[in-house]
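Proteins fold reproducibly. Take a sample protein:
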Amino acid sequence: MLAKRIIPCLDVKDGRTVKGINFEQLRDAGDPVELGRIYSEQGADELVFLDITATKEKRKTLGDLAERVAQHLNIPFTIGGGIKSVEEVEVLLDKGADKVSINSAAVRDPALVERLALTFGSQCIVVAIDAKEIEGGWKVHVAGGSKPTERELFEWAAEVQDRGAGEILFTSMDHDGTKAGFACEALGRLSTDLSIPIIASGGAGNIEHFVEVFEESNVDAALAASIFHFGEISIPELKDALLDNSIVVRKTESLA
């Protein structure tokens, strides 16, 4: 059985890590590279860095962030935010990113997923999907969660898989920052319907939520932000608890 992955997510705005509730009310959480270094030492399996205003403010993803992260960390990391071309992905991968995450640009131009997968390989391409439950259905949102679309979560997820995405990072906007638990029902359906890895995002508030999402869905990884950033849960204690619940994770000795 493949080990489940624990992935701290660092939302970056103006070069700083921030975290909010339901994609709003942002507060500062520190330097992203320094936080990433700490998480790497604690045993994080991967990291995700998202420039959360890049698309909304029509800015390019910060290539220098990818370079700084690659210089200081030795675990895989994904970087995303405002990516909309093969050329931008090439720059980020050249600067050291292991994967890139695309979201709004894929919704606008679904063929972008195919172009990126064909050029760099599916293993490099993560499609992030932000969705909100509206009138009994899950509607995909873009531009940092600020704009609803007509796309439906499960249909869109199946389409990006067919187009060559290597992973899906699903964030429930209803759960994001609430610390009330992951959207396990939707995650369970995604992990059942699709054959590519699913990363759960949005709602982690305690260790039990991680146990719950791994037991109730077949997701491959769970991602969280504020509980790590503000010291509410450490990665070593989380992994110990998962192992105690017979959930396979990669255990490393913490250097922190």
Observations:
- The mean pLDDT is 89.
